[in-house]
Amino acid sequence: MTIDPYIASILERLPDNSGVYRYLDKEKNIIYVGKAKNLRRRVGSYFYKEQDHPRILLLLKHTSDIQFTIVDTEYDALLLESNLIKEYQPRYNVQLKDDKTYPWLCLTNEQFPRLYSTRRKNDENARYFGPYASVKIMNTLLDTVTELYHLRGCKLDLTEEHIKAGKYKACLNFHIKKCLGICLGKQSREEYLDNVQQIVNIIQGNTASVLHKLKKEMMTYAQEMAFEKAHAVKLKILLLEKYQAKSTIVNFTISNIDVFNIVEDMSTAYVCYFHVVNGAIIKTQVLSVKYQLNETIEEALLYAIVELRKSARSKAPEIVVPFPLDININEIIITVPKHNDKEKLLHLALRNATAYMYEMQKQKEFSNPETHKKQLLEGMQSDLGLPHPPVHIECFDNSNIQGSYPVAAMVCFRNGKPSKKEYRIFNIQTVNKPDDFSTMREVIKRRYSRLLKEESLLPDLIVVDGGKGQISAAYSALKELNLEEKIPLIGIAKRLEEIYRPNDSIPLFVDKKSETQRIIQHLRDEAHRFGIMHHRQRRDKSMTQTELTCITGIGAFTAEKLLTAFRSVNTIKKASLEELTIIIGKDKATTVYNYYQTQESPESPEEENS
To answer: With 60 as the cut, is the pLDDT of residue 438 above it?
Structure first.
């Protein structure tokens, strides 16, 4: 199957997160919504694997764009997928176009409330929790709280008056100890309602207060020598500690809000918008706001809020934002949440805005690579104060463990991208102990003295991994070669990701979100990766060498075959030529056999004195 280049570029940029993806046609209509534990693998499977189902082939034929929303878990993706399908009714989601809804837990508004599962919210006075994407999860929660607190399961019209009048008889649940006999007056209403409150705390995820109360109750029973009761409470604690389930997307207490979060690069702001109704995200959209003058991030967010609410026709009475806004909007509450479910939604919106920003940056690079390359290099030239755009950059990093097997890596970037054929590894020759500064001096001198000797082109920029010490060492090496004025040099310090120049104690200011900073960090990380890889190869090769590999004509593979067969070098020494031939062939067997025979020539016996 031939993949459209634009779709292929999106597939390459998809993250490895859980989320929901949307296929759009040429008119930008959503034609399919799906969920994925791993967006990259799931969406890629549609395009990279052979498809024979005619409906899937038709879907892929009409797909001209792909959008996605990141969520925390596959469970959250399931809920969001359901909400988006109900909202947009995509053409290719017919298998999900039914009236089925996810179940809720309903807590009735009675003198002695009941808790049960339902798919219909038709009691305005009741309190609902959920919805739950998995019936199994919901039933586990229901069983847990029921086992902990033994709420009634009957539908009797229980009132204190009826209970005092003795209208009811004990049922089976009372006899099997699944109910404490509230209808018989064996449990007070105050105790019953206190248990209901603990159940609400558990459902809402606030298990800490419940556990604290249970542990205090257990200690009280233990001090009173009521060990059976203490043990019963301990079982409740163990049961509660095993339970954990709470969605960061769905919380029924969040009734009708708009959530906005924003990120920005040098020229554009990206705003992610969630519309949340009854605790569930039913709309999600990202808007880019291109800066024209010297607008602030607050102004960009306000502009996006107006546009997105207008587009969604939202009348939500509350807006959740990441920072205070200096504006009053009639009849609308502006909230900056801290440490609650709204804050989690805000964080999720930030992740989606960030993912969208990176996607847009990659799209610009894909659609017009020459323009993007020119803007990138000119931006680096301006940010770093270079005389020319840094088309050719070389970056150095040292790698050793306590001075053993020291190597230095050099990676090369051209036009902001790795040029792996120009990567180089330097085995250190003059430094015999852990000394990053001397190692850096040696490598820089060796590299550029060779380029001068070969009359090769010098790089537009040198980057070293390290702070002032490494920069000074590299600068002194360039000075010995009279290159200190010809090649710009910078270093990136590990601790604060600061960029330094030679003979300058103050770091160079570069925007942490800029492409310049990203490229320099990529250079540093790539040099570190390349150096570590070769350092490990040297170390592993050294560790696997044996006496056998010292024999001319015997390599590591042959030595490994011999050691596997004979288990030790001493056994190999004593082996016959025939035994060796069976394992490694006649020629190599003769080489090994003769080597040990010549080494172990017998000594002449001593003569006795007469």
So the answer is: yes
Q: Give the pLDDT of residue 598.
A: 76
Which tens digit of pLDDT belongs to each residue from 143-169?
778 877 888 888 888 888 878 877 878
| Cβ neighbour number for residue 256 with a 10 Å cutoff | 14
Residue 283 and residue 315: Cα distance in Å, rounded? 13
Q: Beta strand 404-414 with 424-427: parallel, antiparallel or unpaired?
A: antiparallel
Q: How confident is the model at residue 463 (pLDDT cuts 50, 70, 90)?
A: very high
Domain housing 434? 385-534
Query: Does residue 514 have a pLDDT over 60?
Result: yes
How many domains does the chain fold into?
5
Whichever domain contains 497, its CATH number is 3.30.420.340
Q: Residues for the chain: how many in total?
A: 610
Residue 419 sits at φ, ψ, to 5 deg, of -115, 85
User: Rounded to an integer, what distance in angstroms lies between the CA atom of residue 266 and that of residue 290?
Assistant: 10
Tokens of 41: 């693998």
Give how far Cα 547 sits from Cα of 311, 543, 554, 602, Å.
76, 12, 10, 21
Count CB-CB contacts under 10 A for residue 43.
21
- 3-state DSSP assignment of residue 491: strand
- What is the rounded (10 degree) CA torsion for 241, 247, 252, 256? 150
Mark whether 38 and 126 lie in a shared domain: no
Q: Which amino acid is located at 257 in the chain?
A: I
Region for residue 70 given its phi and psi (left: phi exceeds 0; alpha: psi -120 to 50; beta: otherwise): beta
Retrieve residue 384's tokens.
Answer: 């770093």
474: exposed, middle or buried (C-beta count within 10 Å: 0-12, 13-18, 19+)?
buried
What DSSP state is assigned to residue 100? -
Q: What is the 3-state secondary structure (H, E, C) of 398-420?
A: EEEECCEEEEEEEEEEECCEECH
Tabulate helix, strand, coil % of the chain (nearest 5). 45, 15, 35
Q: How far is CA 507 from CA 20, 440, 460, 476, 496, in A?
A: 42, 20, 20, 19, 10
d(CA 101, CA 104): 9
Residue 293: in which H helix or E strand, if any?
none
Torsional class of 450: left (φ above 0), alpha (ψ -120 to 50), beta (otherwise): alpha
Going from the C-alpha of 514 to that of each of 383, 465, 519, the distances in angstroms are: 9, 19, 9
Nearest C-alpha neighbor of 107 from the set 146, 133, 163: 146
As a whole number of angstroms, the distance between CA 428 and CA 409 comes to: 11
Check residue 367 and give its pLDDT: 67
Inform me whether the pLDDT recorded for 461 exceeds 90. yes
Of residues 112, 82, 81, the one with CA closest to residue 99: 82
Q: Are residues 359 and 315 in the same domain?
A: yes
Cα–Cα dist 17/181, whole Å: 49
Q: How far apart are CA 139 and CA 549, in angstroms?
A: 65
476, 374 Cβ separation under 8 angstroms: no
- How confident is the model over 332-369, as pLDDT tens digits? 899 999 878 888 889 989 998 888 888 887 777 676 77
Q: Do both 24 and 60 map to the same domain? A: yes
CATH classification at residue 303: 3.30.420.10
